[in-house]
Amino acid sequence: MAITQRQLRIFWQSSLVTAILYSVVCLTWGTTWLGIKVAVDSIPPLTASGARFVIAFPFLLIICLLARAPVFFPKNRRVFFVLLTVFYFSVPYYFISYGEQYVSSGLTSLLFSTMPIFSIIFSALLLNEKIKVNQVVGITIGFGCLVVILKSEGLIFTHTGLTGVLAILSAAMMHGFLYVFSKKNASDINVFTFNTLPVGLAGFLLCGAGLVVEKPDLSTASQASWIALLYLGVVASAGGFIVYFYLLKRMSPIILSFIFIIFPVVAVGIGALYENKTVTPEFFIFSSLMLIGFGLTKLPIDTLKRRLENIYGTERSAKPAYRR
């Protein structure tokens, strides 16, 4: 069947929209880390991470209602709801806000880009998935380069720097675990349900803890910090969520997962400009090698292998037999 000009035009328009939205997610997630850095400049980390979610919650609730998705989790998933609220939204985002007090926004994004690596490890432990050779090689390269970067930044030998690094890596590990755990136990829960109420509850829990522990004087918070919180709540959390799940329905998960390789590049560049820091050649080289290593873990080796085998098998069967 011949493709009409109208069908071709619709295809290219759809592809262009998808490419633009993909770029928007990379840019949004890449700037999130700088937003957190600016927010915690004058607002304590518990309060800042909670305020972000309190701002995002009404927007997510409206989206959830418009999509006619249930707000509340099923009764038999209450334990999972608690785990998600505490160990996906509350604790990890506090750890990230805490860590960014001592670690640059660009390096924070590199540290958090290890999340898919933790998901590979937990997939092997919880889902009995085999870790492939390319994943072992990629993880080794990635974490080896990360150690070199941390050493060159002087963050391994200082108490506060090391604490910040460990907090951010712990956040990435928790996200990796909950990602795999949700695949195993909650794959049937609507994506809007999955995010809306946990975000709202996490926001109020974090703000409540902030009032008790940090006793923040919000009158001293800078205008830049408030603008950063609005950006994190409305654009990064609510807007980024909508666009990401729109793309998830229209793109290969493998291609979409490369966002975790792209957004650190955006974060490092924007963070360096804002913080007036020079990206050293050593940092650039090892950051690039680290992301290449993590990208290697995402290659669909089995799919490529099957395709090569099919091509090779077809060529062999098509080859005329030699007769004496």
TrEMBL record:
GO terms for cellular component: membrane. It is found in: Membrane. Residues 20-150, 163-296 form the EamA domain. The chain crosses the membrane at residues 12-36, 48-67, 79-96, 102-126, 133-150, 156-180, 192-213, 225-247, 254-274, 280-297. Keywords: Membrane, Transmembrane, Transmembrane helix. Pfam families: EamA. InterPro entries: AA-Vitamin_Transporters, EamA_dom, EmrE-like. It comes from the Bacteria. This is PagO. It comes from Teredinibacter turnerae (strain ATCC 39867 / T7901).
